[in-house]
Each structure stands twice: as structure tokens, then as C-alpha cells.
Amino acid sequence: QVQLVESGGRLVQAGDSLRLSCAASGGSFSNYVMGWFRQPPGKEREFVAAISRSGTGTYYANSVKGRFTISRDNAKNTAFLQVNSLKLEDTAVYYCAAAAAVSASMIVTIPSRYNYWGQGTQVTVSS
Q: Is pLDDT at 102 greater than 90 in this prediction?
């Protein structure tokens, strides 16, 4: 059983940057693809970014490409999401998730393929 705890979310102004963290425990972190999702107010949860087990492969939603960067530190069992140039529409609860994967280069973007989820961290962008 893997436990995931997100942190780093807060109220910021448009154009600001944040670094979200996802600390994992209870499992072999390097065996999992890590993903970030978000749920804006009144909307469905949506894919943001994912990173392969090895960290060499990444994939982003078009809406965040060029502004967000996903990374991981397998030695510290932690995944990160660097979010830059924040926009009002980035306001959401951000969740990290872990998906078991056999291949070190595999990427997972579908929520139902993720086995474990964190509780989320709120990011609010004001004008």
C-alpha cells in the first residue's frame, strides 16, 4: 500500500510560480509511474503531467506544456510539479497519483490506471 501526501499549494497571484511536492511511503517508489492531476472548481478531474519510473520520460497536457515541469527523486521517494507563469484557470486542487508499471519508460495518462492517490493540495491563483 502506497501513501501519497501532496504539499506546496497556496494562494498566489497570476504570473507567480510554485513547487508542488508529493511524498510517497509504504511502497517501492521507483516501481511507479507518477502523475499529477487537478480538479478545478465545479469541473472534472483532469490530467496535468506524468513521469516514467526512471524519470527520463515525461508527458504534459497541452494546457500546461511549457509552463509546468514534472520531476522525481527516486532516492527521496518524492515527485514534484514546478508550476510557472500561473494563470487564473490553473486554480484547482492538485493531486498526485501512482501507477504500477512494468516498463521503466512507460507513461500513464488515464486516471483509472492509477492505483494510489493523494488527498490533494489547493492552488488558488488570484488576479
A: no
- CA nearest neighbour of 21 among 6, 36, 43: 6
Give the pairing type, strands 46-51 and 58-60: antiparallel
Q: Which residue in 79, 64, 85, 87 sits closest to 121, CA to CA?
A: 79
Confidence class for position 103, pLDDT limits 50, 70, 90:
confident
User: Strands 11-13 and 3-7, how do they pair?
Assistant: unpaired
CA separation for the pair 57, 50 (Å, rounded)? 8
In 3-state terms, the chain is what percent helix, strand and coil (to 5)? Answer: 5, 50, 45
- CA–CA–CA angle 103, 21, 32 (5° rounding): 15
C-alpha distances out from residue 126 to 30, 54, 56, 108, 115, Å: 36, 35, 34, 31, 33
Q: How far apart are CA 39 and CA 45, in angstroms?
A: 4
